[in-house]
Amino acid sequence: MRWGYRRHPRKKRYWTNRRYFINDGRNRWTFGFKYTEDGKEKTYSLLRLADVPIVRYVKVKADANPFDPTWDEYFAKRADKANRQRKAKGARDARAA
Description:
By secondary structure, the chain is of the alpha+beta class. The protein is built from 3 helices and 3 strands, in the order ααβββα.
């Protein structure tokens, strides 16, 4: 937290830690802040890398060639499956971008 100590050189470390870090219930050192909106207390914090789910990708068959018409069915199936998974997770449609 050197940045905070440099930013506030006359403040104690306790004050700097209390100002920039919050206790989110499972981890005391979460960089963020609490605020009140519409009478409800909310928190805003940085996304933790451990909270990002791991996405595994299925490899393309070695013999598959996207320019060969005999493999059209294979690539269409892959595209349909990928679109269904994206929509199920709430992501917007890739073609709409």
